[in-house]
Amino acid sequence: MNINFTLNGKGMELDVDPMALALDVIRGLSLTGTKEGCGVGVCGACTIMVNGSPVSSCICLVGTLVDKDVWTIEGLAEKMPELIDSFVEHEGMQCGICTPGQIVAAASIDSVGASSPEEVKKYMAGNLCRCTGYQTILSAVEDHVAVN
Amino acid sequence: MQSTDTEFLIPTSVSEALRNIAKEDAIFLGGGTSTALLYKTRMIEPARVVWLGNVGELKGMFASPTEVKIGSMVTMAEIAADREIARLLPGVSSAAGVIGNARVRAMATLGGALAHADPRQDLPPALIAVDAKVSVRGGSSSREINLSDFYEGFLETVLAPDELITEVTIPIIPNRHSSYLRYTPTSEGDYPTVGAGASLTFNGDGKSISTAKLALCGVGAVPIVSSEANLVLAGTTGDDSVLRRAADMVREAVDPQDDERGSADYKRDMAVVFAYRALKACLVS
C-alpha cells in the first residue's frame, strides 16, 4: 500500500505494509537514530514526533501515519541545534542508547505545555535511562524549556 | 516484522466505516497502541483493519451544563488537557492523565481504550463512577450501553464484531463530586495494582449523600462495581467511619489474582485502602 506522510520536513511516498511498525520502516530508511528498547511502548528509546506529539514508534502501525508530520532524531537535530547543545552542555547522556528518545521527547514537550520542573519531570518520566543519569537529562530539558 | 496481507482501509465517515467492517476478521483501529501490541504477539491476525483516524465526526468533545460528550477518537492527551472536563469530571481527567506515558496518551483513543477491555485500565472505573454511557452504532442499528454493563471478561466486551463505539456520554449532576486514585508499586507508566473511581452526590443541604458510586480496576477480570457502597453511604453525611465501612465492602466484591503487582491478598487490602481514599477525595473536592 502507498503511504504518504511528511518525514523530517520532506514529503514521502512509501510502498509498505501498513501494518508494519513505524520503527522498522524508519530504520529501514537508514534513519537508525531511532532505537528499539523495550518494544512495548514503555521505555521511550524509539520516540518519534508525530504532529508535534511524542509517539512510541515500536507500537505505532505505519498505516496510522498517513498524512501526518513525522520527525525523527535526525531531522530534529538539524532543526533544533540548541536542544542538542543543551544536552551536551548538561552532559545529559551516559551510554547513549536512550538519548535520541530523550531528545525527541524533549522536542515534543510543547504538546503537553509542561513548563515547571515538576511538570517536566512528570512528562519525561516515560523515557527511561538505565544508566539512571536522570538529573543531567532533566537539567538539559528544563534549560531548553526555560529558554524557549 | 513479517509482511502480511492485511487490508488497511481509511474511511472518512462513520457510515463508510460501518460498511468497511462487514467482513470476517475485520477490526476497527483507533490510535493503535493496544492493537499494535496484540498484533506483534499475534494475539490477533485481522484480515482487514479499518482505521478511524480520518473520521472527523468521532473526534468531537462537547460539554454542556447537563452532559459531557466525548467522541471515540478523542485521545487520552486531549481528554487530560481539557479544562472543562477537569472542572466537571476531575476523576475522568486525572485517569486520562496517568494512563501509560505521554507517548501512549498522545495516540490512545477513548473508544479504543474501552473496546480493548484490559481490566487494569485506569479510565473505566473513573467513567463508571460518573455513570458514563457508551454510544454504539452497528450496520443496521444503534444502542446505548451503561459502561458498568459493557465488560464481559478479560479483553471481552458486549460489542458485536460489526459494532463501533461512536461516543461516550457522561451526565453532569449538580452537587456531585468525583475522583480517581491509583496505586502502582513499579514505574509511573505501569498498570496500577488497583485504581479506584468514586463519586458522591449530595442532597440540596450539601451535607447528606444521595448517591455514592464506586468502581475499581486491577482487581478482577472486569472493572469491579461496588453497589454496596451506595447502600452504606446513601442518606449519611459521609463520616469517616461510614466511609471506611463502605470501602471495606469491596473486600468481598473484588476478585484479584497474584502477579508482579502484588499478591491477591495484598491487592484486596489495597483495594479497600484506595476505595476509602477515592471516596474521601469526593468529600473535599
As for the CATH topology of the largest domain in chain B, it is Uridine Diphospho-n-acetylenolpyruvylglucosamine Reductase, domain 3
Number of distinct helices of chain A: 6
* Termini gap of chain B: 48 Å
Classified by CATH, the class of the largest domain in chain B is Alpha Beta
Strand arrangement in the largest pleated sheet of chain B: 4-5-10-6-7
List keywords for this structure.
heterodimer, A: 148 residues, alpha+beta, 5-stranded mixed beta sheet, 5 strands, 16% strand, B: 285 residues, Uridine Diphospho-n-acetylenolpyruvylglucosamine Reductase, domain 2, Uridine Diphospho-n-acetylenolpyruvylglucosamine Reductase, domain 3, Enolase-like, domain 1, 3 domains, 4-stranded antiparallel beta sheet, 14 strands, 33% helix
Write the layout of secondary structure elements.
The complex is a heterodimer of chains A (148) and B (285).
Chain A: E1 2-7, E2 10-15, H1 22-28, E3 47-50, E4 53-56, E5 69-71, H2 73-79, H3 81-89, H4 99-107, H5 117-124, H6 134-147
Parallel strand pairs in A: 1-5
Antiparallel strand pairs in A: 1-2, 3-4, 3-5
Helix pairs in contact in A: 3-6
Chain B: E1 7-9, H1 14-20, E2 26-29, H2 33-40, E3 48-51, E4 61-63, E5 67-71, H3 76-81, H4 83-88, H5 90-98, H6 102-107, H7 110-116, H8 123-128, E6 133-137, E7 142-146, E8 151-153, E9 156-157, E10 164-171, E11 176-183, E12 194-202, E13 209-217, E14 224-225, H9 228-233, H10 240-248, H11 250-253, H12 264-284
Parallel strand pairs in B: 1-3, 2-3
Antiparallel strand pairs in B: 4-5, 5-10, 6-7, 6-10, 8-9, 11-12, 12-13, 13-14
Describe the protein in words.
- The complex is a heterodimer of chains A (148) and B (285).
- Chain A is built from 6 helices and 5 strands; from the N terminus they run E-E-H-E-E-E-H-H-H-H-H.
- Chain A is α+β, with helices and mostly antiparallel strands.
- The radius of gyration of chain A is 15 Å and the shape is globular.
- In chain A, 51% of the residues are buried.
- In chain B, strand 13 (209-217) and strand 14 form a beta hairpin.
- Chain B is built from 12 helices and 14 strands.
- At the A-B interface, strand 4 of A face helix 2 and helix 6 of B.
